[in-house]
Here is the input.
Amino acid sequence: MTGDEALRGGDPIDLLALDAGLSEAERDTRDRVRALMDTHVRPHVARWFADAVFPLELVPVLAEAGLLGMHLRGYGCAGRSAVEYGLAMAEVEAADSGIRTFVSVQGSLAMSAIAKHGSEEQKQRWLPRMAAGEAIGCFALTEPTAGSDPAAMRTRAVRDGDTWVIDGAKRWIGLASIADVAVVWAKVTEGDGGRERVRGFLVPTSTPGFRATPIEPKLSLRASVQCDVALDGVRVPVDAILPHHPGLRGPFACLDEARYGIAWGAAGAARDCLEVALAYAGGREQFGRPLAAFQLTQAKLVEMALEVSRAQLLALHLGRLKDAGRLEPHQVSVGKLSNVRAALDVARTARTILGGNGVTLEHSPMRHAANLESVRTYEGTDEIHTLVLGRHLTGHQAFR
Here is the structure.
C-alpha cells in the first residue's frame, strides 16, 4: 500500500493512518517480511505448534531475508533502521511468537552481546556466520533460582592459568539445544579485594561439560526451543571472555534490544488476532445475519482495533526515538509492558468472536494468547517493568 492509499483509508484496521507515516523503505521491508511469513510460516505453523517442533529448515530462509542481526551493522548484518527491524518483528510475530523468539534470541541477544561487548576477533569469528544462519547462538542468563533477579546468579567462572572454568546452571535458555555458541553470564572474582562482577563468556556448545536439555512439555511457545543448561567444569580459553562493559549492564543492554523487538512483536500478534476476528465475523452468520452486524460484536472489534492502534503507535514512537539515539530503558519498559498486555486482551477477545471454533489451531488467536503468556514473562515480568517505571516516576528503588 502506498502512502496516498493509506491516507485514503485503504486498510480499515489502520484507524490512525499510521501506514502513511512510514517511508517507502519501511513499507517495503514490512511487506517483504509479511510475504515471507505467508509463504514459509503460516501454512505450517499450526502443525509446528501442535507437534512442538522448531523448524530448523526455516533458519536459512530467515538468514537469506536478512532478519538475523538485522539491526546490527557490518559483519554480514543488514544494518537496517530500528523502525524497519520493528516492522519486521511485528510481521514475524503476527505469524508466530515462537518464530520471532528465534530471531530475537539470535539477533537481539546473542549477536547483540557479541557486537556490543565482544572483541574484534570474536566479532569476526561469530557474527558473519550467525547472520548467514550458519551458526546459532543462545543467551544464558536466567537461572533456576534467579529469574527476575540476575544479580543473585550462582554460576561462577574461575581463572585457571590460561583458561576459565565455568560451573552452574541456567534455565529457560532459548535455542540452547540447537545452538553452536552460548553467551554465558557468570560471576567472577576480580582484583585483590575479591570483588564479584558479572562477565560474559562465549562458550561453544560442543565444549565438554556443557549440556542443554529442552524443557517439555510446554503449553506456550511450542514452535520454539527453551532449555535447561548445565555447566559442569566447562573449560574455555582465557580469550573467551567478552572484554567490554563488565557487570550487569552488559546483559541488560542486550535485554533492552530484545524488549524493543517485543513491543513491536506484540503489536503484530494483536493485529493478526484482529484481522482473523474481523474476517470471521464478516463471514459467519447467526440468526440470519453476519456476526459483524451485531452491536456486541462491533463493540468488541472496535475495542480491539483501538488497542491495536495504540500498540502500533507506541511501537512506532519508540522506533523513531531509537533511530534518533534517544530511546531510554524506562521507555522500552513502557513498550514491553503495555503492548504485551494489550495483545493478550486482544487475543482473548478475538477468541470469543470465534466461538467454539476459536479453540482449534485452525485459527490463530488462542495460539497467540498461549504464546503471549511466555512473552509476558520473559525479558522482564509485568512486576519488574512496573517497578522500573515506578523507580523512574518516584526516584525510589522498590525492588528489595
